[in-house]
Amino acid sequence: MATTSRSAIGRRAALAALGAGATALAAPRIVRAQDKVVRIGMPTILSGRVAQLGNSSRNAVLMEVERINAAGGLAGRRIEMVIRDSKGQPQEAARIARELINTEGCDLLLDGEASSGGFAVNEVARDLGVLCVHTNSETSSLTADPKLRLPNAFRVCRQGVHDSIVGGSYAAGVAKAKGLKRWATCAPDYAYGRDTTAQYVEYLKHFMPDVEIITQAWPKLFQPDYTENITKLLQAKPQALYTCLWAGDLTAFVDQASIYALLSQMELFAVNMADYTTLTAVKHLPPGIHSGNRYIKTFPKTPQNAAWADAYRARYKEYPTTWSWQNSAAMHFFEAAAKRANSVDGKKLAEVLPGLTVEVPFGTDGTITMRGEDHTIINYAIGWGTTIPTEPYVPDMHPGDWKQIVELEAEWKKANHYT
Amino acid sequence: MVRRAALADVLGGAAAFAVLAAVPLLIGGKAAPDFVIRCAAYGLFATSLNLLVGYGGMISFGHGMFFGLGAYAFGLLMQRTALSIPAAFALTILIAAAVATVIGAICVRLKEIYFAFVTLAFQMLIHSLIISWVGLTGGDQGLRGGIPRPVFLGVDLANRIQLYLACGAALVIGLVLMHRIVASQFGYTLRMTRDNAERAGYLGVDVVRVRLIAFVLAAVFACVGGVVMSLFVSGAYPDFADWTVSGDGMFINMLGGINVFLGPMLGTVILLLLNDTVTRLTEHDGIVLGVVILFFAIGLRKGLLDFVLDRIAERRATAVASPERG
């Protein structure tokens, strides 16, 4: 009896073991994905004035993580995100990045910081040698300057110099057609505002040398009242106005400018207008504002791009931002690199990332490439168009010419002694 | 007597450094050394602020400017010159002292709220200068490209353990020196100017001079805190010179207490522990920190170390008084 019983248990155990073995053999990737994880640490801004963008980054990442995990994970490993709020402070970004690697045991860094926070995380990546993908720092020097560029750091994000070249080219086209020679600028008074304006004007003059800048207004960052700047601009009577004000500052400026009928007296070129958070925040969006694309679901006008935006909106009850597509694309790069390297080891991923092309809804032709020479992306959707008050807000985007962008960017790098 | 107190400080400092040096061995992982380095940066800064607030009665809202100045001066010297780390460190201290002398010469003549707001105004000036002088400081992007750390006297600050030991040493030496300052005749004269500046003046004390020296000394130690922070993040950012850093210094003093020398150090540990744990749990960490500050400000009405020592003193007084009553 006892023997029979033992024998029965033994059979059941043997059958169970066989069953488990068969399952493992049949679906090894899924079993490994359940057993092993790859932890990706992400410092980003989840509180303060930029929190909405940080949240939109997190949303996009989590959406992609769900998709990748459902498909078997990164090289068979399930992704586990550890996302922390840096409050937009570079020292906190550095601390958190270090903690994510040293304490939380993260294998890779997805840096969702902007501006100085991104540079702080870059130094942590330099120090720890961990693979780091920057997703929200648009400052060109991060990857263009060889002193800053790291073999283990990559940028999946639009770049300031690309925006300026496309913006200058588009503006010159409009200016030639409409005879706009007297220009004004209005930008926030800090490095981003000054650098971006200078670069935009440089390329505007490159494409149309007889343009004249007759006045420049420099409101403070997060300034609530633009009356003095608006009256200054009105008095100068320019034919066109360029602004790189962004987010709440831009909506406040456009709303206040409408009161003074500024937009009926000059053409407005606002590089940061075409992002849903800004477009929907303006009380009465005027028609005819020229804007660069940040993120618009109709550019590129493909079913994949619209589907991605709709899926995001269905899940989070709001449209994605430019930070969203960049973070989504970064996860695609992780996925493609892990597949090619058949590993999640940072060093192996860093070897295959240069030159890697991924299929994403945000590329001009459905793909984006990680340029090998400076670890930054090219071929992403970039263009300018004019607004209408309702969806799709910017119906006809004029895409930038990547051949021209790359050529002028190379000249810019040379002029800045980066090459 | 003075020599014995100094010896006690030095021995206490040596013991504290020995404990700090053992931390990486006792606690595995790299988190503890990182935490101690940040404690060193903020601890030096907050204790130096207490030289002004607690011992000098000068409530500075702009002390963070020297923290930022230290980080930027040291970072720039290391990036743009061929100076060794000790030489750059010494020059950074001289720069901070020179700037503090100029700013202090204006501020220390002012009383209370005027002193507070003029120091804040100077901080805003320095912060604006950092933001605007893009060619030198990198503007709002900060000093990029890392801070070079050439080996000096066999010390390699690129090595994380050696950096940890160097920052620990800076903290201990800084605290010992500041403790010697507050325990010196100068320290007592400073307290006198705090309690009754007019009377101190009648007694022949040059109040402005005493307050100016305290201002410069506090600036120097704050600047050392900034140097430590710049080494930790391998850069310098405008936030280091922003008013929020001065605010953090004030919070730390409120948390730890200003009547006991090590109060700000305890406050630093509390604030950083709170920050590090609360930010893991919620994005609304500001609310939690605010509640904690309110608890200390309204509940205890003093910093933790002040509260604890006052209670001990009360108990002792009660114990002494009890037999008499009996």
Attribute tags:
heterodimer; A: 419 residues; alpha/beta; Rossmann fold; 3 domains; seven-stranded mixed beta sheet; five-stranded parallel beta sheet; 15 strands; globular; disordered N terminus; B: 326 residues; mainly alpha; 14 helices; 78% helix
Task: Give a verbal description of the structure.
The complex is a heterodimer of chains A (419) and B (326). With 419 residues, chain A is α/β, with parallel strands linked by helices. Chain A is 48% helix and 17% strand. Chain A contains 15 helices and 15 strands. Chain A is globular, with a radius of gyration of 25 Å. Chain A starts with a helix and ends with a helix. Chain B has one domain (2-242). Helices cover 78% and strands 0% of the residues of chain B. Chain B is built from 14 helices and no strands. The two termini of chain B are 38 Å apart. The mean pLDDT of chain B is 89. At the A-B interface, helix 4, helix 5 and helix 8 of A face helix 2, helix 10 and helix 12 of B.
Overall pLDDT metric of chain A? 89
**Helix content bin of chain B:** over 70%
* CATH architecture classification of the largest domain in chain A: 3-Layer(aba) Sandwich
Distance between the termini of chain A: 84 Å
CATH topology of the largest domain in chain A: Rossmann fold
CATH-level-4 superfamily name of the largest domain in chain A: Response regulator
**Got a strand count of chain A?**
15
- Largest sheet entry of chain B: none
* Rg estimate of chain B, integer Å: 20 Å
